[in-house]
Amino acid sequence: MAEALRRVLNEGRAAGPGGDGAAGPPLLLLGAPRSAQTSLLFAAALEAAGEGRGPVLFLTRRPLQSLPLNTPAARNPWRLQKVRFQYPSSVPELLQLLASAHEAPGPAPSLLLLDGLEEYLAEDSEVQDVAYLAALLLDTAAHFSHRLGANGSCGLVVALETQKGADGDVPHLTTLRRYFPAQCWLQPDALGLGQHHCLRASLESGKLSPRMEWSVTFLPNGEMKVIPWPTQASKPGPEKKCSSAESQSLTLECDNLSGSVSIG
Amino acid sequence: MALALPEVVEELLSEMAAAVRDGARIPDEHLSSLKFVFGSSAIQALDLVDRDSVTLISSPSGRRVYQVLGSSGKTYTCLASCHYCSCPAFAFSVLRKSDSLLAFRETWVTVQTWSSSKTTPHTTKMAQKWRQETPRYKSLKDNFISV
């Protein structure tokens, strides 16, 4: 996966072999509506921007009206400047952007993010069109990796809001899995306490890698707590003390979860 | 970043590329292995090699893409970094049916990526070998080779 997102979920520690600038396999971030995909993508963007290996290219269909997160990193102008937002409004525009990415001036990005893939897939439902879009994303990231050279490789994370079809399957998921060997599922945690909005993040990096899971809890004050998913059958407790080395708090405006976003 | 072929295939293609770079003929065993791994796509791919139907397009930035001329005269695009071809066979056989590991144009791109040049008419060579050894030659002849 993009190691930046893994580090966001893994409390700031460089996890596994990603510490040398290797981006890992392309990652598909999956979840139902309101599962904080945009927030996690933005957190990954800030994480990668802080590495100094290159800018981050954040693609989304609709311009962001405000920043998805309100954290020290999000308020850091130096990091924000390294996140380049582009808003291709249609599939042809997105394909054009990706196909001509090698002509864009400036340094190669170290992370390529695409939010809201489902909105683009709604335009083109043919399996070959879906494959072409996925393949072009990979090819673009591969080109950026080539340009980065010794500075590491370019990660790729694509967020897809999942809506199951009449047959119970997520449309185009089989095709997308062909190109994205790593998937991170965001699922509501039924054991969430009270007013807390809890998600279970399950990362599968490939057949040979063990599944990694985290509990992502959004507190009423807008804070986001990320802790490893407990192995016992116990609820993750927001009152549980976490050291700074074990948990990373991201201040999040909870209005983001209800559709409106504001900056604190 | 590219989807990785099984290690055995990568090793096979590396050996083939080494033979080509040394100016030697590709051993028959390698060609047979190629057919074993990729199935019928292999001979169609090597036919593309013999007919010089593949063009590598490179931009000054280093980004590359393969353009393949089909028998109908239509050109198709294969990406170098991952498994994709714009031809209908890829959509049908690979994406929809998952019958083939790779469609034949992709197989060619895989071969070309690992080879710097071609030496002998691979298709004829393979056909001769299979005529001698393969009980299924008749089906091969009917479907892929006009001999």
From TrEMBL, chain A:
GO molecular function: single-stranded DNA binding
GO BP, sorted A to Z: double-strand break repair via homologous recombination
CC annotations in GO: Shu complex
Protein's recorded name: ATPase SWSAP1
Provenance organism: Mesocricetus auratus (Golden hamster)
UniProt lineage: Eukaryota, Metazoa, Chordata, Craniata, Vertebrata
Automatic annotation (TrEMBL), chain B:
Top-level taxon in the UniProt lineage: Eukaryota
Identification of the protein by name: Zinc finger SWIM domain-containing protein 7 isoform X2
Organism: Mesocricetus auratus (Golden hamster)
Gene giving rise to this polypeptide: Zswim7
